[in-house]
Write a structure and sequence with these properties.
The chain has 237 residues and is an all-alpha fold. The chain has one domain: Ferritin. Helices cover 58% and strands 0% of the residues. The protein is built from nine helices and no strands. The longest helix has 29 residues. The radius of gyration is 18 Å and the shape is globular. It starts with 12 loop residues before the first helix and ends with a helix. This is Ferritin-like domain-containing protein.
């Protein structure tokens, strides 16, 4: 059987947390300061709905591969958000209904991003950049191994694997169908990097100003751009 062009992992955040709860797990004394940390992560993942809906109306502009990319990406981000809902419920007793009420009226402000969002090529580079950064920051979340159940660590590792696949899928589409434009990648990525440090506007993108973001300023921007350009220049992913 021919392998699918884009990769997609299938797993359930809720199933992992259901297993943790069913095991009789008790809170070992997780620092209450993690509540703000996890809420910031939940907000970031939940806001994927704003970006997805913003791009959905433009689906006819995009290649079938990028449309599939968006659908795969969004399904994964919803699964990640489900995980943070479960995490907040399990660790801090926060009812999901209350969390949803706090989140459901969030509106993404995409003003100022028009150029970066203008075409499939730019969007793929934007996703590649964002997902690459996500992998780097989530890898620093090593505290899950101290939460008293291996399921927490299994969950965050699954999440990291998804973000890595999102990056890989974006690069694959770029190298397969946009190879004639790759000489423009550096310029576009530099413009993308220029948004670092700005105010987060509920867009899912550049959500790097909260307690959940563990990278220093010298770990984003130019260093990420150079690494992505190096990967794009290789013959195969």
């Amino acid at each position: 059987m021919e392998a699918a062009f884009l990769k997609k992992r299938n797993w359930s955040s809720r199933a992992i947390f259901e297993d943790i709860a069913a095991s009789g797990w008790t809170n070992p004394g997780i620092d209450p300061s993690f509540k703000a940390f996890f809420m910031a992560d939940l907000v970031s993942e939940y806001d994927s709905v704003n970006l997805y809906n913003f791009l959905y109306a433009r689906r006819k502009e995009f290649s079938p591969y990028f449309v599939q990319y968006l659908d795969f990406w969004y399904a994964d981000e919803r699964n990640h958000a489900d995980g943070f809902f479960e995490l907040n419920r399990l660790v801090f007793g926060a009812p999901e209904s209350d969390l949803i009420n706090d989140l459901k009226n969030r509106v993404g402000d995409f003003s100022g991003l028009e150029d970066i969002l203008s075409c499939e090529f730019n969007l793929l580079l934007l996703f590649a950049y964002d997902e690459y950064v996500s992998v780097k920051t989530y890898k620093k979340d090593t505290f899950y191994q101290d939460f008293g159940h291996p399921g927490f660590n299994v969950w965050i590792k699954n999440l990291i694997a998804d973000e890595a696949i999102h990056f890989g899928n974006a690069v694959k589409i770029l190298k397969t169908f946009h190879a004639d434009k790759l000489d423009q990648a550096q310029s576009v990525l530099r413009r993308i990097g220029g948004f670092e440090g700005g105010e987060y506007k509920n867009t899912f993108l550049f959500d790097h100003d909260g307690p959940h973001f563990q990278l220093d300023s010298d770990e984003v921007g130019s260093v990420v751009i150079d690494e992505i350009l190096s990967i794009l220049q290789k013959r195969s992913l």
